[in-house]
Amino acid sequence: MGKVIVVTSGKGGVGKTTSSAALGAALAHDGDKVVVVDFDVGLRNLDLIMGAERRVVYDLVNVIQGEAKLTQALIRDKRLETLYLLPASQTRDKDNLTAEGVEKVITALKSVFDWVICDSPAGIERGATLAMRHADIAIVVTNPEVSSVRDSDRIIGLLDSKTLKAENGERMEKHLLLTRYDHARAERGDMLKVDDVLEILSIPLLGIIPESMEVLRASNLGAPVTLADERSVPAVAYFQAARRLKGEDLPITIPGERRGFFGKMFGRKAA
Amino acid sequence: MNLRRFFTRTPSAPAARDRLQLLLAHERASAGGSDLLAKLRDEILLAIAKHVQIDGDKVSVKMERGAQVSTLAVDIEIPFEAAAKKAA
Q1: Would an 8 Å CB–CB cutoff place A157 in contact with chain B?
Q2: Residue A15's pLDDT is what?
Q3: Does B20 touch chain A (CB under 8 A)?
Q4: Nearest 10 degrees: CA dihedral of A60, A36, A4, A62?
């Protein structure tokens, strides 16, 4: 049975779709079967970020309404054969997402894939709550910026109250993915530091993704950043985050930080 | 930005951290339905409305949420006639 991950944030534009695509590709890179599901009905973009925009025939809403089979709607990635995309509908409004429909789709995907990654829309409305509803693991994407941190705090509250796990009295596994981090600005005191954000949100850190030109470049090309250039700084950070998701205990490094001999010996541990 | 301003500028991240910590402490409390300040505000206004017709424009409510102390200031203009009628 596969694991269901929700990539969520509350705030828009912090990197949910970029991170969903990058982590999905990183996990599939090792041969795991991965599907990334776009929950942003009406404003889909995952197809564009993954370079599959011209191959969308059916979408999540078609499947839920019984107009297409799940296998018809799934789009296989051209680069990685274990990576799939389930696009959102661009034309219908989000009321077409029903709780029962989403449950059926997620259950079916879980039985086939190792990882089901749900790319949540921004906000705390229906699309966002349905994206997180069936999750086993939540990745909270946060920028080191006050409005993003506040919204993440709100989302963490929802993860602990409005999900199936929470309603069954189980604990939702939550991870922080700090994106668009600029080490130099944080060192100058002009950006919240990693530890500031961790102290405020108090959930364990999955990874730190630096602010990088590579992210825009990858989206221009229609490739997850982990496939556009595997060795770029953000790609390496996403690959490490993916390994941590699989349970590896890797020390967290701050991208852009120059570290001396002692720094390397006594690396920061994942919280 | 000139060089002097660049070097004398104070870091802004500590302010961001402090503001967030304070705000979230209050927001987390109110998510549990225990926002005392908001409850007091509503009940005070209700109590006054029982005796005097309150004109929405004549009510000013100010709240200041602090780390140690919060303040609630309710300023209501009560027209002389209303006060006199009640007294009579």
Answers
A1: yes
A2: 97
A3: yes
A4: 10
